[in-house]
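Morning run. Coffee first, then this:
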Amino acid sequence: MTRITGDLIEILCELAREGGDIAMRHHGRLENVMAKADNSPLTVADLEVDQYLCEGLEKAFPDIPVVTEERAESHAPGFVGECFFLVDPIDGTKEFVKNRGEFTVNIALVESGTPVAGVVCAPAVGRLFAGKVGEGAFEMPSTGGPRKPLAPRKPDNDALIVVASRSHLTLETQAFVDANPVSSFTSAGSSLKFCLLAAGEADLYPRYGPTMEWDTAAGHAVLAATGGMVEEISGAPLKYGKPNYLNPFFIAYTPGTKFKRVPA
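And here it is:
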């Protein structure tokens, strides 16, 4: 378990809330949208939130490196050790630019390849999720307020609820749905999918498509804090700190959920 104690989650929640406030000042504005090398969008909001989060983490935890989507130097081999933060200042930039509410601000702490604490803030829908493995998870309003403990629902394995990506629904995902007794299929953007499992709103999240570690680590930590699992399609645990930070396809699921694995 992480050697950081005390106010870790409080600090991460405060940083994510303020990051969400910064993002909302730009929400839906189409000016100043740039393109990255892979043609994915980059906004001024991404850069402002990234700067705020990185400066806050470096001040609070100066000995722990921060890997962030928006800083290529943090992706260099050997940049991190066994303990590091993973940051995605705005996960779901496409939704953000289109003025949809499903973007999130993500912060996760990784130790020995495993996310052990994380915060996912979705300011446009007013939800913030946080969790620390061994201590549980909770939801609160993104502006602050009462906390509600999170717990997955008891799954009905004859009528599973699946959540998947609105922007990345693949043929493989459809094949997974067709191979299992799925009664309800819902779409959600960004890392909210993990949090819906932790909150008892779905049972399974199959991801047959590319993601980066900063896309998934915070939501992974929230789900893991409630006893959920995130595994490669083969069943091996999804690990972090890979050389290129690229995730293989994976399945996230809640305790007691039974399903048929469908190869990619």
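The chain is about 25% helix and 30% strand. Good start to the day.
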